[in-house]
Amino acid sequence: MKAINDLKNDLLKRREVKVIVESSGNPGFANAAKTIGDHFKAKEDVVVINNVKGKFGRDTFLIDAFIYNSKADKDRIEPRPKVKKTAEGAAK
What we know:
With about 90 residues, the chain is α+β, with helices and mostly antiparallel strands. The protein has a single domain (about 1-75), classed as Alpha-Beta Plaits (2-Layer Sandwich). The chain has helices spanning about 30-40, 70-75, 85-90, and strands spanning about 1-10, 15-20, 45-55, 60-70. Strands 1-2-4-3 form a 4-stranded antiparallel beta sheet. The protein is globular.
């Protein structure tokens, strides 16, 4: 793993990192969060993965992520996932 960019954002209480990871297959968001958490000594629940980019024929992937200082900071800033409406709820 090679860190390309490591910026500390004091206003939003997070680190903004870009790293290059070598992998035989696409690491995916869950595995990327675990890898970044291990490398930067942070818990997985404070890591937010924005992008995992790869190029055809290469074994390197660019991962763009945020590492928050605490779970409360993450919950305050990150948007909440939308809840899907079910057919039962619409019929009532």
